[in-house]
Every structure is written in C-alpha cells, then in structure tokens.
Queue: 2 jobs
Job 1
Amino acid sequence: MLTVLAQLILAGVLQGGTYALAAFGLSLIFCITEILNITHGEFLMLGGLVTYILFAATGLNPFLILLIVIPIFILVGFGYQKTFIKPILNRPPRQLLFSSIVVTVGIATAIEDTTSFIWGPTVKGVSFSMPAFTIGGVVISSLRFSILVLIVGLTVFLHFYLKKTFVGKAIRAILQNREGATVIGINVPRIVTVVFGIAIGLAGVAGVFYVLLFTIGPFIGLPLTIRYIAIVMLGGSGSLLGSLVGGLILGVAETFAGFFLGAHWSLSVAFFTLVLVLLLKPEGLFRHV
Amino acid sequence: MFKKIFTPLNGILFIVLIGLLLLPRFVDPYWVVFSLLVFMYIGVGTSFNITAGYLGYVNLGHYVFFGMSAYGFSMLYVKGIPFLICMAVGVFTSVIFATLISYPFLRLKGGYFALANFGLIKLFELVASSLRDFTGGTQGISLKPGYRPFETYYIFLGVALLTVLVCYWIPKSKFGLALFSIREDEEAAAAFGIYVNRYKMKAYVLSSVFPGLLGGVYAWYSAYIDPETVFGTDKALLPVTMVMLGGTGTFLGPIVGAIFMMIIEEVLWTAAWLPVWIKTLHLTMLGLILAAVGIFSPGGFVTLTPFTKFFRWIGLGRFLGASHKSLKLEETF
Amino acid sequence: MRKTWFVLILAMAVFFGTIQVSTAQDKKEIVVGMTLCLTGRFAVDVGPFDKMIKAWENYVNKKQGGLYAKAYNKKLPVRTIIYDDKSDPATAVKFYERLVTVDKCDILMGPKSSPITFPVTSVPEKYHIPMVVSTANTPQIFSRGFKWFVGVQQISTAWADHYLDMLEEEKQVKTIGYVAEDTPHTREVYEGAIPNAEKRGFKTAFKEIAPAGTTDFTPILLKLKAADPDVIFVSSFTPFGVTFRKQTKEFGLKPREWHFTHFDISFSSALGKDANYVTGAHHWLPGLPFGNLKKFLEIMKETNIDTEQYLDVGLHYIALEVGEVAIEKAASLKPDDLLKSLWAVNFESILGPIYFNQTQGYGSFKQFAAQYIDGKYYLISPKKFATHKHIYPNPTP
C-alpha cells in the first residue's frame, strides 16, 4: 500500500510540475499587467509544434531542441507584447479586462485556425523515450523525472533572477506598487516587455515538455489555458512558489482522485479543489513574490 | 398620454415586431433556424451584459446557467414530465444556482471573478461527464426527437424580446443607477449608502433568468445534449465575444454583436464569390477582427463613430446612451 | 422621423430582395450536400476530405460523364456542397436545413461523428430528402425508427468483431484488459466488445473508463500491471491512445498484445518503436480486393490523401459510392424513389459488400483488424483478405 501511495504522490508531483511551468508565466503577466492572457495555451502548443517540426526534420534530442526554443519564444513574447498588448496596456481597469479578453481570445482563435490550416488538424507527437527506473517498487519515468528536474532548475533560476538581477527586482517592484515603481525611475513599459518575453518563453518550454509526454494538436490551447488559469488562481498570481504549489496540488489531487474514486473523477476533483480554495481564500494561496 | 404611446418611433418598432412574427411564413425554414440562433445569442448576450456591462463584473461563466437549465430540463423531460413544467424547472435550476453561488463569487473582484466563473463551466462539464447515472455522462441525454424550429423560433423571439426590454428598462431605473454607481466605484457607492451586496446579487440572479429560459428550450429543440455541447468552453466564450464585439455599454451592443457574428459566419461560408482560402480561414479572420476591435475600439462596434452617427441620423439616438444623456458613450462604457 | 421610415423601408427592401425565390427549373444537375468538421474538436480526424469529395465530383463528371438519371434518360452532372459545421451540432443542423431548403440538395451525406449526426438526422426525416450516414454508428441513431437515412457501418458495438473472430480462431489469448476513453463512440465500442469477448470465452482481467483529457494514467496502470492480461484493449482516439501507450512503456507493462481501436499515422509516428506490432481497427488499406479500385486509387492519388492516416476516408468514400448506386438505380430523382433505391442498395464497394439492415438502416461494413508492423499497416482479419499474418505474441513488448 505504501508503494502505491508513493507512486501516486510521485505521479502527482511530476504531473503538477509540468502544469506549474506554463502557469507561472500566466501568473506573472496577470499580476504585472492585469491582463488575462488567454492566448497563453496557444504558445504552449506552438512550442510543442516547433519541437515536433525540428525533431521530425533533424532528429535532435528534444532537450537540445529546448535550447533553441527558449530564445525563439522569448523573442516571440517581445513581438506579441509590442504588437497586441502595448496598445491596450494603459487603459482603465474595466476596459482593460474587456479588451484583454477580446484581443487574446481573438489572437488565440486566429493562431488555432491558421495552425490547423497549415499543418493540418491531426495530432502530432514526438517519439522520444527514455527508459524508466524503479526504486523500491516505485516506477519512476526518467523522462518525467528529467523534466521535473529541469522545471525545478528553471524555477530556482527564476527565483534568483527575480531576487538578484536589476530586471528581476524591477519586476518585483512593479508587482508591489506600479505607480511607485514609475516614480523611482523604472521603465515600466520596457519591463513589461521583458515579462512577456519570459512568460511566453516559459510557455514555449512547457510546450516542449508537453509534446514529449503527450500529443499536441491545433486546438489544445484553450482547454490548457483554462487549466493554467486554475493553477494561477489557486496559487496566487505573481507568486512563483504559488504556481508551483498550485500545480502540485492539482496534480496530486488528480492522481489520488483517479485511483480512489475512479479515473473519471480525477479532473472534476481538481477543479472542485480550485473552486473551493478560491472561495475560502480569494487571492489564492500565496501573495506575490 | 396617447401621444406618448403612438409615437412614430413606436410605430416603427411595432412594424418590425410584426415582421419578426410573420417571418416564418415567408422565408425558407433555413432562415427560421438562422434567426432562432440569433435570438438565442441575443438572449444570452444581453443577459450577460447585465453583470458585465451594467454592473461591471465580467462573468465569463455566464453560459453555465444555460447549461444547467438544459440539463435540468432534459433530465425531467425524458421522464415524461410536461414541457412547461420542465421549462420552469430549468429556469429554477439556473436561478437557484445563481443565488447559491452569488455570495461567495461576488466577493471576488475583476479578473478573479471572471476566471473563477469560467472555471465553473469547466467544472460542470466534468461533473456532468462523471455523474453518469444521473446525467448520462458523456453519452449525453437524448430527448424525444422532433422537428421544432417554428415553435422554438417564437419562444426564443419572445425571450430575446423580454431580455432586451428588461435591459432597456434597467438603465432608466433606480436599479440601473445603483448598478452603474457600483460599476464606477464600488467603495464610493457603499459609502453613499447603497447596499452593494444586495444589488450585486440581484443583478447576478437576474442575469441567470434568461439563459435559464433558453437552455431548456434549446435542449428540447436539439433533442440531444451532452456535456461538451452545453458546457463546452469554446461555446461559452461565444456570447461573451459577441457582446464585447458589439459593445457593453448599452443593450444594443449584444444585439449588434450577435447579428454581426452570425452574418459574418454566414457570408464567409456561403458567398460564392469568395476564394476558398478565405472560407477555410474564416475563424482566423474572425479572430483578427476580434483583436482589432479589442485594440482599436474597446467599446465595441456600438462606440464606433460611424455607427453612432448613423443611429443618430436615423433618429434612434436615444437608444445609444446607457445612463445619462450628458455622459459620453465612452464614459458609460 | 422621416429618415427613420426611409431607412426602415430600405432595410426591408434589401432583406426581401436577398431572399431568393426558388423557381421551378428543369433538372440540370444532381446536388449532393453535407457538412464536415473542418474546425473544432472533431477536425483532428477529418482530413482533407473536402478535397476528396471535390475530386470525386470531378471524376464522376469528367470520367463518367455524370450520373445516370433514369427519369431523364441521360447522365446529369453532379455538384457537391460542403459546409463547415465547426464540430457543433446546432451549426450542423442549421447548415443541413440550408442544404435542403436553399441549396435544394437531392441527397445528403452525413456529418462526422455520432453526437452531431444525432440531431442532424431530424432534418432529412422532416423534409424527406434521403441521407447516407457515413461516420456515425451509435446504436441509438438507428433505433429511433427513422426512415430517411441509412448508415454504411455496422453499429459501433460490432467494432471489434473481426478482431475477436481472429483471436478466437487462433486460440492463444486467454485474458483481456480493457481501458476506454470516455467519449460516446469509444465507450460503445468498449461496451460492445466486452460481452462479445466474454461470450467467446475470453476472461476480462480489468476494465476501466477514463476521461478524455486524462494526462496521467498512474492509477489505471498500477491496477493493470497487477492484472497482467494477455491483451490490453484500449478503446480510444489517437491523443488518448498515444499518451496512454507512452506511460505504459514507463511503467513497464508488457502484455502479449496491444490493441488500440483507433490508430493511424499520427499514432505510429508519435510513438515510434513503441507502436510496432500494435493491432487495431482500420478501414481501407492497400491489399483489399473490393470494388472499383481504379477510381478510388486515382482519386486518392490526385488528392494526396494517405489512407493509413485518415481512417474515415474509406467511410466517406463508400457513402459517396452508395449515393452513386442509389441515384443510378432509382426510378427517378424524386425523394420517394431515391429513398427506395437507397434502402435496396446492395453492391460491392471498395470496403466490401454493402447492404442495409431493412428495419433499422445500419449498414453491413464491420471494421477490419489491422496491425502496424515495421512501419506499415497490414490487414490481419478477416483472414481471407489479410495482407500479413497476425504476429502474436508481441516480440518486442
């Protein structure tokens, strides 16, 4: 029984870790700009797509492809922000909410449709696998484990980036008090662009992992975005730790529910947990970094 | 007093109404089906606007009322319970649900409120899929098959009219004034003695009535529902997009948005003179239009100068203002 | 006020002006209408079928000179109309209404998937225009007593028949473990396969249904590993199947055979080596000897459709073939005659003999069992047309 529990927890953690990555980007965007970036899931899908294309063309180890994907998507993030987000950034809160929803939903639809048109609506996967290893009766997938290690690594990196570098500190300053940050001389628009770069870059990375573990198709973006939004709200926006914990909670809730209640309950329980947490603690579990 | 009722404007509206009532007689059933869908979206969109546009709380999960009503209706209808009772139950399900969740959810603000409600839809989709014995799971519920566009047309027309009337009346009433003041500055409104919570709840519950009326009838018309059809997340975003496209400040916005989107879809697909690639990419076009509207005209079509000028020119300017004549349209948005 | 009147009258004029008044004309062409899920959740399985249908139209018109219409004693050209129903039942119903009332189709082809076909079938029933259902095979569609459509496939509960026939004949398999993706179609296949198998003497070692979006199968895999069946039978669509198989690899599940009810090139390319020796169901594969192959292959070549990728190609195609046969054998193109001819259809399509159950209207085609071996899909059951021997047990589990 103990091994079964351990297996479930481990699976939940691995699952949650993959969620947390994309969620953090979304969370950062929401907290810094109050924009609901519904397009986020599409970037994940595109990350997976690029990986698929590169893998099919060159057969490179996906972890190496990762290194190519990161800079590409950071740049994409810059471009996305400059074209679509900048015009609506400085609007009063309610207008901002409306506009952000409309714009991001519009872009998301356009991306989905164009992708389906160019690459076809079929699902794509990457046939890359690594042998699993077993410790004390518990099976550990080395692929998932490596991904988790990378995620933890990225999280640690981000943590130090936010704490030690100027840009990181500027981001945290804006998170705490936007006007105050402007007053002390921080170039907020420039930092916002950086934030988008980071966030979309993270989404792209999550996409690489996603296509390794599952399959991608043009229309997976929207359901995924919803799931990430759930994690963001669970963990508290703007909090790195919050996204991680939120993702983990969701992942573990899923696996446990799946085992004890039957597979068809796993997702319901996850969402139920989210709604419950939100009602008890509306801002989420953690305050921002 | 007679002068007030028999104005030329009301005369025109009356004629339009007669036209809509007689429409099914004169056109192909296809247009009846098309129109009934337009009415349905008008109903859902306009009621969404009560919380989103008037109260300022964007309820992305508005569609969940529709879905709940559809399921409530269907589960009873298959047991042989008469149509009207099922419809009543559908509305009750939706309204009671809204009342129950209003308190906890209305404590959330802005984006959180929007997303939490959106999460509700997904939750219900999952729950409907899981409670197999109760809701038929992913197999859905099949109702007695039948061909009912005409009846549905009139019911939807009626509900759409009702919704529009209510939303026309709200800005002119004290209720509407309270909602607007909450929208502009909730704390100030509370400081002025408005029972903010009470009004928020009333608006939320009121907005659930109309999808409640529509959901059950839709299930009856379709003769089949499953979790994806009534709780699907892309479906749920559709009325929201229509309203935002059209404009949220006035009751005209959702109508304009709904008609616009249905027509665009129609034109893009069936116009023979458009090249094939436009038809295949029609969603992309729609997405880009949305983004453009969001960036350049956040108030929706209704705030576009050509539109407002046109309406004033034909003499229907009074429909544009949402609250007070002296406020510019952008300000009421 | 005058302005308002003016605008109103103008609007009415435009409105009524655009409504086409249909005039009775001499029949100049045969119109075939349908919707396809070109966008939305079912788009994954719908490939460039619109191209195929247009190619079929071209072939019929150019190489066959049209379809023979007895009532006019000559061949009439065919015109196809396709709309995108966005994988949404309400949109599909709207377009089918349009196909019948505005476009005046003579015959309709069904949309993709059972949930959409379900409400759509009330349109032909009301307007009395015949319809050939291609990809829907839910029993419920056919048990309502509707008269105006037929379906080319057997009902979904018979999906695994040919596969189980083969297993029964080979007498090597004792236990089967079942996993199903929770969608109406895959569940029906699962629910049809289990009693079918048990009747033949195969023991059910495990069975469970998982939601369509499941990304972590640990709970199921743990139980499955303990049960250790000979065959693991997964009733799923490609995304679910791929995710599942990847995780089974990590868990070290080694059954003697994998069976995935829907598999195609996406599946095998996403899994690489792990897809080797997997069995499943398929429709048309090279090696089948039926029907007018020359025409079919030419159309496939022209549209560049890979039949190993798009399972449903065969189904859509034979629906068109059924349409052709029905039209050419009908006494006239009037709906009643066309319908009678449709129910009486009995011919050899590229998937084998097609005829319809005369009470419920479902067809005679049962999925063939196939196996993916070293990069290609081969037919393994029925043995008569098999292009390869069934490899069991799996040499590289």
Job 2
Amino acid sequence: MKTQIAVRNLRLCTKDCLCLYVCPTGATDTENSIIDVDKCTGCGACANACPSGAISIVPIAYPPQQKKEETVLGRSYRMAKNKAEQEAVARQLAASAGEDSLYRLMTAIAKSVRLVNEDLLRESGYMLPQSGNTHALLRDWVENPPFPGFPIAAAQKLLELLPNNDEDGETKKAVKKYRCKICGHVFEVADGETPVCPVCKATGDNLELLG
Amino acid sequence: MRYVCSICGYVYDEAKEKTPFSQLPESWTCPLCGAPKALFVPEKKAEPQRASAALVHMDEDMTKLSAGALAALCSNLARGCEKQYKDEERVLFQELSDYFLSVTPEVPGADLDQLLSLLKADLEERYPAVSEAAKAVGDRGTQRVCVWGEKVTRILHSLAERYQKEGGAFLEHTQIWVCSVCGFVFVGDAPPEICPVCKVPAWKFDKVEGRASA
C-alpha cells in the first residue's frame, strides 16, 4: 500500500521535464500537467529530480489535528461572526456604490476580511478537510440541514470522499497485535488477516497474540 | 527619535531624515507598505499594558456560527482541498460556501460608519481577547492569526477612514491590491515586492478590478 503521492505546483514548474524521464509509471506525463494519482507509486523520484522544486511528496493519510482549547475557540468564534458581518457590510456597500473607487475599495475589503476569517477558522479546528471536526460538521448538516434549500448531496458526497483522520476507537480497534517468538518483532495486523512477521516471515505457532 | 511602522516594521529615523517625524504631513504614508502616518509608533516606548479587567465581560459561549462565518469556514476548507490537489472536494466545499453566502441576511442600514465600528471592535476588543486566551494556553497558531489579522484589520480601518474623510480621489488613478494569502490591502500602481504582513512575493497579490463596463 502506498502511503504518499507526488503533486506538482504548476506556478513553480519550469518545464524541464526531468520528472517525465524518471517516473517509472508515466504518472507525471499527463495532458493537464496534474500528476496521475492512480498511477503514482509515491516513490519520490520526480521530486528528487525536479530542478525547480515544483514537485512535492504529500502523505495520503494526514495526522490528527492539534487540539484547541475551549477558551480560545469561544473568543475566536465570536470574532469570526464579527468578521462575517464586516464582509456582509462591505459587500452591500460595494453593490450600492456609485463611484468606481468606492466599489473597488469595498470589494477589496470584503475579499480581505474573508481571507482573514478563513485563516481564523482554519486555526479554530478546521485546518484539514479530513479532520474529525469537519466530518462532525458535515454529518450534522446532512442530518439537520441548517437552512432551507441546503445542498445535502454536496455534504453527503464530501463525507464519502474524505477520510476521517480523527477516527475514534470504534473503527481503530479492528487490529491485533502479535510478538514474533523467532525474532522478537512486535507488529499489528488487521482483524481477520493471517499474521506473518514482516521481519522474519514467521507464521502460526511462532507468533504470540498480545491483544 | 525613531518611529516604527506598526504594519511592516519600517523605521523612520529622524537622525537620518531631513524632516522631523512630527512635521511630516498627515498625508505621508509608509514608503514600504503604504500605512498612514498614524500607524507609526515611537520606538522603544513600551506597549501599553492591556487591561485584563475589560476582558471579563467577554461572552465565551460557543454559540453557533452565523451563515456568513460558515461561508468562510467552507471556503477555507475548499482552499485546504485545493492545496492538496483534491479538485472534486474543492468544488463541493465551494458549493457549500456559496450556499451559506446566499442565505446570509442583509445587514440593515449598512454604511461606512457601521463598517468602521465593526473593524474597530476587532482592534480594541476581540484581537486582545483572542490573543490573551491563546497566550494563556501557549497556542502559537492562534497567536500568529492575531498578529496577521490585527495588522490587516488596521490597514482596512485606515483605508475606510481615509475614504470617509477625503473621498475616493486617492484611489482614482491607481490600483488596489489584495494579498491572496493574508488579506493585506495595498494601494499603488504595482503590488509591493513582498507582502509587508505575511512576506509572500508580489505575484501572490490580486488586483481588484473595477465594475465590468456594460
């Protein structure tokens, strides 16, 4: 199972094409310049060869996010609501602006406030789309649509597409731990799979179940 | 005496300049980031101690986020998917964000005064409050958000205030640029070489276009 894949930043790519020469599966050679996720094996050869630093290797599974304190979250959320109101006011002023300078200034302010608010909420528990917080929010919206006409299908689809990196114990417990009596290595296998020591390939009675 | 720009850190050193700082016209702006003269502070003057007592009144309940805030939350997640090259997910989060924006209620009587007072509330109450809570628990990520956000909010407040005082002449024959990373707003013919707040290069700035001519 591959654990990482290569991605290409098109703004940085200088088309030296070394990635095409070194890729063992042809994953970097595509009509839209986006590396083919299915073909990529995550070997990293392209990233090592790229002279412009346009290719980086990212993990497939992301770690859980840093936990945030309630005291910080409470105050951050209050500010997020204030910022949303600033954005709404700036949008309305832009929409009703007579002169172009006011229109541009208010458009700039609405855009700026949105960026600052995105940043604030990113640091308030919503950094990764794959987080438990994001999943909980999406699930809540699917079960209790927040407003009439809410696009439930979009939220449902996101729940299917995105893994949850904060998966609780219920889904995690399906592994068994073994110690190899031959080489001493301790390893885990998914429940139901035949255990084989990954170091010395020992099986059966040579493995001790730890729980 | 030396005066430091509170946005980008530019130093106006009276020993090296011809004009004492106090005699610079009020229309003088920071040569690096365009911050108005009023956002300069004398160097070394200790930061005024923030009165913690004022923060006691803060309501800390985790009430639900408003539709407008949820729009920002979802566009942030769309950005997170874009960075991971997950285009299908990006489009879906953007759909949710657009939906929340569409159900955001109109603010009654929206005007410049209201915008200025909302920005001021962030500068005087909310940033000190969030920053204090983040410092207390060693949350450096949120402290970083406060450093960037407070500077950007200061610039927005100064630009809106300037517009209110002298009208739009200062914007007429030039461009407005927004840093696509931190939201810093710059007025000038070309964007700054690096963003004075978050230090990204000029190409990360977006030009704000005027109304499309019919």
